[in-house]
Amino acid sequence: MAGTTSTTRGGAAAVRRERVRALRAGPLAAVLTAALVVALTAAVSLGAVDIPPGEVWEAVGRRITGQRPAPGSRDLIVWQLRVPRALLAAVVGAGLGVVGTAVQALVRNPLADPFLLGISSGASLGAVGVIVLGAGLGLELTIGGIAGITVSLAAFLGALAAFSLVWLMARRGGGFSPLRLVLAGIGIGQFLSGLTSYLVLQTGDEQQTRGVLFWLMGSLSGATWSQLAVPAIAVALGMLLLQARARGLNAMLMGDETAAGLGVDVARLRREIFAVTSVLTGVLVAVSGAIGFVGLMVPHVCRMLVGGDHRRLLPLSALTGAVLLVVVDLLARTALDGQEVPIGVVTALLGAPTLLYLLDRRLERN
């Protein structure tokens, strides 16, 4: 009798916590939106040449309303250099947050992300392979350049191939093992990273080698308005598709049999999530390189704040990822005087302790 009462109280407490988290989602979204505006303003204002926020917004307002730009170089710095980079950082961060949330639901493991599952490594191999092959044929297939669509397509195909291989390894024996999926992703990701490093060494052009290596560690340098359209559209569409399947993702967290009992076509939903995450990862890697740990950190932090309901979790992960990567890119660009640090270095310094913390918590629970 006492055990039943204790269980009932525990269930009631869990329900109350979930209600509190649900009520928290709206104000948190408003705070994150405001933080994103502040972060974007700071990203455009600060740099080798500091520009006051008021002047930044004046320059942006003139461009948006079609007025004549103010004379001088500051307008060009704001509109041509810093605004596209800041917006691209927000788009990539939002995409990584959404992809990480979807992948963790797909494998029912909060320690999963595109980087750990080998998806980013496959996308990097595809993009670098096309660049190196193009250089060998005398073609200008630079990342973010004229052939950006070709590089994006190669990155997508590489991501799809890598995740397919990881998926097949995880389903060996007829069942589905989330742990086997993560382990297969780590092993295959390391193998593909080795192939990518080999291809980079075959370029024969020292400057191109340095550029590709810098990009592989994550970089938004050289961002232009032309680069922004494809990832922005891909992230928006991916977000809409995943949001429409939020209830199915919630059901999958309870197990395949329970989800099927609730009317969810688990196999079809997995294929859809598989395709969406592969496309998004390929597009994001093509424009920013392989930025690790964002897809791991963001969903977990949001889950602690608003619970596991993907109807709230997906949009908040997008906002949090956008704020995080804009701030990280600003730090990478301004932390060292006259030298830019690859974004992946900063996210690794933040993400590695987070991963160890998550592992420690899981061990304590077990």
Architecture overview:
- It is found in: Cell membrane.
- This protein has 14 helices and no strands.
- 78% of the residues lie in helices and 0% in strands.
- It has a single domain (28-36, 74-361), classed as ABC transporter involved in vitamin B12 uptake, BtuC.
- The longest helix has 44 residues, at 2-45.
- With 366 residues, the chain is mainly alpha-helical.
- Mean pLDDT is 82; it is low at 136-147.
What share of the residues does DSSP label as strand, in percent?
A: under 5%
* Overall CATH architecture: Orthogonal Bundle
Average pLDDT score: 82
How far apart the termini lie comes to 27 Å
Q: Strand count, sense and closure of the main sheet? A: none
Number of domains: 1
Low-confidence blocks of residues: 136-147
Count every helix, treating DSSP H or I runs of 4 or more residues as helices.
14
- The CATH topology assignment is ABC transporter involved in vitamin B12 uptake, BtuC
Give the C-alpha Rg: 22 Å
Shape: globular
CATH H level: which superfamily?
Answer: ABC transporter involved in vitamin B12 uptake, BtuC
Structural class: mainly alpha
Task: Fill in the keyword field for this structure.
transport; globular; mainly alpha; transmembrane; ABC transporter involved in vitamin B12 uptake, BtuC
